[in-house]
């Protein structure tokens, strides 16, 4: 009920009571009904009391309405204040978005400086080691098997069986991945304990040691030294490999190796992604794979018979793995530590600024610092979960399955078997040893070319589409390869 309604009702009641009082007074004056004065006065008193109660009731209602109006006014003031705060917050968000947009534009304008190029080249030498050591065992397979036969005959005075020599060669191949298990376990710890740059420098000690052991294998007349060298070099740089061997030992190797990567494959991409500008981060990420394929091709070229693919040259071929390690050990100390590591992990803001100034060749590094600060805040706001919680979480199950399937699609593609056994596969198809090595070089050259081609295609066609095309091609041609080997096997059995 409004204030006007209450006033109108009160006026109406007063008018009615006035009319009643006037009528009573007229009756008293006329004396028509001979009412006694006392009775009339009592009635008048009663009417006055009712009028008083009505007035008091109206006053109470008026007071309540006033209180309601005051409360409504207070609420309106509060709403107005909140509205003003929302407007201020909206203006602040707009200013923040504009500032963020300008900052991103400035970050996207950053180019590839000389010192940044130098640092990336020094870092990817680690991936060159990985590519080289992955492919180097392929070409000299026959030479290594002959060496093992000679060592076994000198030791035991009898010829080794073909089955056992294949098992020994399988160990030489697979132990590279066994070492990678240790590298995978310790990669994250070394990155946080010694830094990205420090971890790479320490890792070169393993690379040099493993290369020296492999290089002096023939001189020591011990194939165990080859195994040890391959194991250490695996800790240094091994990636997940597909070892298509028959022994259960090697099957176990594959199972674990699919999960763990070596130190170089952990530290190098981490270092490059953290020193690269925002606009170059995606493209520079492919430099890792390019270095791998170049290392593979280099090992295949050096492994031909005209260069080092001989009974005397294969130890030198394996020992040349020392060159990328020594070169990185000489070049990397000049490079700065990862700015993200310095700022986020160590909380050394001034050191991070110095590193950024060297990498960007500019004193304007506040945008990069702010970006890393935002990344740090985002990391702190995220809750950490255990491996069991990751596996059991329904919301994270789909990304987890995608990541596993992506890795399996790479491992089961069969390309790693080509890395290790392409020469023997080509020889089993009827090629001579020399022709088989040249065919292997052709595979390495195609990998380098396709890595270069994939860099622009990655942004043009998209990662998912490009990956699906690759998987489709591997699926189709793997069937053709399988059919061709089956036909050859049946033909050989028939003859």
TrEMBL record:
It is found in: Membrane. GO terms for cellular component: membrane. GO terms for molecular function: hexose transmembrane transporter activity. This is Major facilitator superfamily (MFS) profile domain-containing protein. Residues 119-495 form the Major facilitator superfamily (MFS) profile domain. Its main location: membrane. InterPro entries: GLUT (IPR045263), MFS_dom (IPR020846), MFS_sugar_transport-like (IPR005828), MFS_trans_sf (IPR036259), Sugar/inositol_transpt (IPR003663).
